């Protein structure tokens, strides 16, 4: 099915929504743990946002990704078509009720120039902007596992090569995620 047709169908259907993922949910087997209906539609670009990392999450063994509004920065991600029934489980995974992340609608551009509205999540805590060439401070670094999930997801989705290279250069904190998460991810 071509992309345009797919978007048209999604827009005309009330049973599905589009979700823009930029963190661990780039990886198919990760998103499917909680959201079995997720279908990959394509990659997309979120303008005027920057990928950043916040807060220590014990199960991940490190900080997790957020997309922070910052002028002239861009975040690449995956557009997933999700069944409405999965919206609650996605909100739960993102900790919306606990005020970890909040959901918002954003305009996403595909490489073909199609504009589409997607649901995405931003962490409620906005980290301080780093200086040019300043590395993520230790307490904001993702674990080995979380970084690996993002990099593998970016490769699996075929995000642009320079963006994948940027992800590979992110410093990690030298820790692994919990055994439970690693087992579920097969990592
Ligand atoms: C992380 O996991 C790898 C692979 O299982 C292991 O070799 C390494 O020792 C672990 N590192 C830490 C800090 O637990």
TrEMBL record:
It comes from the Eukaryota. PANTHER family: GAMMA-GLUTAMYLCYCLOTRANSFERASE. It is an enzyme of class 4 (lyase). SUPFAM superfamilies: Gamma-glutamyl cyclotransferase-like (SSF110857). InterPro entries: G-Glutamylcylcotransferase, GGCT-like, GGCT-like_sf. Transmembrane segments: none annotated. Its EC number is 4.3.2.9. The keyword Nucleotidyltransferase does not apply. This is gamma-glutamylcyclotransferase. Pfam families: AIG2_2. Substrate binds at residues 19-24, 146. Gene3D superfamilies: Gamma-glutamyl cyclotransferase-like (3.10.490.10). Keywords: Lyase.
